[in-house]
Amino acid sequence: MGEKSMSSQKDAVKSSRSGALCALAVPATLVAVFMVFAPVRLVAQAPPVAAVPAAPPAPAPAPVPRGDLEITVVAPDGKKFLKFQDCRVIIRDQVVDFGDSSAPRTVSGVPAVPDESVAVTADARVAQGAGKPALRFVGVAEASPEAGKSVKVTVSLKRADDINAFCVTCHPGRGQRVRPGQIKRDTHPSGQVLEGRYRQQVRIYNEKVERLIKEGKPHGEPIAVEERLVKVGAKEVKKEFYTCESCHTLHAKTPNPKYMRAPYLETSDLCTGCHF
User: Fold this and answer.
1) What gap in Å lies between CA 146 and CA 114, rounded to an integer?
2) What is the distance between the alpha carbons of residues 214 and 151, in angstroms, rounded to a whole number?
3) CA 205, CA 222: separation in Å to the nearest integer?
4) In CATH, what is the architecture of 66-161?
5) CB 251, CB 94: distance < 8 Å
6) Domain spans in the chain, listed from the N-terminal domain onward
7) In this structure, which of 1, 29, 263, 264 has its CB flanked by the most CB atoms within 10 Å?
8) Beta 150-156 vs 66-74: how paired, if at all?
9) pLDDT tens digit sequence for 143-176
10) Model-level pTM?
């Protein structure tokens, strides 16, 4: 009887412990359920977020008004040249080949921006006869294209054996008076003989540009040099000069400011084209 009584007491203790654990487990389970489902319930009750409407497409840019320029290239005395060896006219990014004719030519589709003019630049060679080098003539005229109309422009040529001397008539240098409408020239010297390693460096640069053009890769413009006859003692010797035109085009538009032939910041392609 004593053993049975003790066994019953042990069973009772186990039962009471299990009951206590169950009693403790129920509140914990309820808390866990509440913690899991409470956020879900709160999210479900949150108001829906309104969809952001898509931005309207950007309006197409207005077409640029354009007009025509009827261009006549004449000699310094105002008369038409009978025949050029060659002649080209530059208007922004358009280069028109006049060939050997001095007859007027019409250039169509020139942007007509109100209160804005364009430079019309003619660059011509005129033959002197057998055995003599052709003479170079350059002229610049200002034109104001009008939308839907044709405007007549006359470009009067001047001798330009020394292109630097021609350029400074509109782009005065350091110490020279600047008239209204003129733009000062750059401070880099020019109009000097290209010699020694500088001449070799320019040749390497121009060969590189020609190669890039053939390969259809991005490139700048070649560095132009001017060949002149220079007296050395009793003889006349051909010398290559670097000029304004070595770094700037004759008003032909380029991706760079001031009609620069290539980017021109320090150590740029254009600078290293001469400097080593």
Assistant:
1) 8
2) 38
3) 7
4) Sandwich (2.60)
5) no
6) 66-161, 192-272
7) 264
8) parallel
9) 999 999 999 999 999 999 899 999 988 888 877 8
10) 0.70
